[in-house]
């Protein structure tokens, strides 16, 4: 996960620097003067939300707002943006995300600001792929650069993909000019270099685009090999042409090379094996891929393609068994280790040069001591010569008789003087050389003294700038205190409005409950009304039925009672047994009994 985190950080660094923030997440002074860093904080929030989306990391808006609140612990503090990025986003990344979509999001945020406005020989999509390759090959230090060795590696890969010859002499001249001015190129300078066509002269845009896409597939998408082959089906046993893509742990096959319609995967592990098959069923150049659960028969277009695919798949399986990374990643790691080794050797050489320089200074000091000793010896020799001459005069006066012997002694003494003079001349020549070296040392001391004076001037200038920054910081803190007071007043007004809203909501709830109770009572009354209505209809029906029955029976029965003085009714059978008044009385009595029985 550490390697994945470093790869993600490079793309995020480009998007992050496009927000006018430094790498620690602090807002620049110009932003603070212009808008108090509000634009930078908004950009950091947008970047964080987009990162959570493309990396499939749960978005925590509470933590985001807490980190970016406008106080001393926000993005303008010493904590900055990087601690939030590491704690709440990068540490939660599981690897289940689309790397191309992630890189495209970061590219969108930074390309518009940094991409050159001059016309290039490559499209924006090709520039995006070169930018992603730069992040893969760049050094693990910021600001990101790609060193000349990696530039040469990338240009060679693109040239080989175009089928052109590599111009080593031309690149050597470019490398010499580059090393004299800087350590390497930025991503945007690399895009300008490839887009200028300096190393792809004579090639059209389509050829360059295809070469960049091939290198992108290999280095970024881990495509080790791809091409059309025939595959035998597992169910219908028919042969279908598919576009195969080999990656470090999987072989995917599609309907065509546009990769839109994926038909399946062949999962590779250390237990898989690949072997050639003899020609059969009219199919040639056959080979077999054996996995734990399935076996796949594949037919290549020719023997060369067959051997290339067998070798590529076997190499991939061997790497899986050994737990090694893909070849291009392993090669990148070896190149990086070699550069680190050369850098260590260069540092060791510089250390040795410093030791030699110190030893040389010690030798100079010893030579100065010898020069002083020679000067003292010359002074002693002059003094001795003076004494000798005095002694010679005294001896000449005192021993005039011994002149011949003195001449002989004098000749010997002259020979000695000549020898001493020769030695003295050599000493004087050495002294002159030492004096010349002493003058050079004096000049070096004067240069060092002047450098110290310049350093003191710069230190005073830095102190003055620090005082100005302290005054500006105090003014910013004053503005911040006024803003806090305004926020507190706004919070009190907001709380009062919230209380009024809560009271209105409670009154609304009580009214709603009363409305519901009235609605229930209305429904119950309606049900009682329907029930009474049904009973009335039933009673009416029953009454009508009993009236018909009584009329039928009373027409057949006639009671014999004493006659009445009132006129009698005459029926079809003779005089009626009841008068009309008695019949009405009996009808009322019958209705009363019927009502009582019900």
From TrEMBL:
<dbReference type="InterPro" id="IPR011993">
    <property type="entry name" value="PH-like_dom_sf"/>
</dbReference>
<keyword id="KW-0238">DNA-binding</keyword>
<protein>
    <recommendedName>
        <fullName>Switch-associated protein 70</fullName>
    </recommendedName>
</protein>
<dbReference type="Pfam" id="PF25530">
    <property type="entry name" value="EF-hand_SWAP70_N"/>
</dbReference>
<keyword id="KW-0963">Cytoplasm</keyword>
<keyword id="KW-0175">Coiled coil</keyword>
<keyword id="KW-1003">Cell membrane</keyword>
<dbReference type="GO" id="GO:0030027">
    <property type="term" value="C:lamellipodium"/>
</dbReference>
<dbReference type="GO" id="GO:0005886">
    <property type="term" value="C:plasma membrane"/>
</dbReference>
<keyword id="KW-0966">Cell projection</keyword>
<keyword id="KW-0539">Nucleus</keyword>
<comment type="function">
    <text>Phosphatidylinositol 3,4,5-trisphosphate-dependent guanine nucleotide exchange factor (GEF) which, independently of RAS, transduces signals from tyrosine kinase receptors to RAC. It also mediates signaling of membrane ruffling. Regulates the actin cytoskeleton as an effector or adapter protein in response to agonist stimulated phosphatidylinositol (3,4)-bisphosphate production and cell protrusion.</text>
</comment>
<dbReference type="GO" id="GO:0003677">
    <property type="term" value="F:DNA binding"/>
</dbReference>
<dbReference type="GO" id="GO:0005737">
    <property type="term" value="C:cytoplasm"/>
</dbReference>
<keyword id="KW-0472">Membrane</keyword>
<feature type="coiled-coil region">
    <location>
        <begin position="328"/>
        <end position="549"/>
    </location>
</feature>
<keyword id="KW-0597">Phosphoprotein</keyword>
<dbReference type="Pfam" id="PF00169">
    <property type="entry name" value="PH"/>
</dbReference>
<comment type="subunit">
    <text>The SWAP complex consists of NPM1, NCL, PARP1 and SWAP70.</text>
</comment>
<dbReference type="InterPro" id="IPR057836">
    <property type="entry name" value="EF-hand_SWAP70_N"/>
</dbReference>
<dbReference type="InterPro" id="IPR057837">
    <property type="entry name" value="PH_SWAP70"/>
</dbReference>
<dbReference type="GO" id="GO:0005634">
    <property type="term" value="C:nucleus"/>
</dbReference>
<dbReference type="InterPro" id="IPR001849">
    <property type="entry name" value="PH_domain"/>
</dbReference>
<feature type="domain" description="PH">
    <location>
        <begin position="222"/>
        <end position="318"/>
    </location>
</feature>
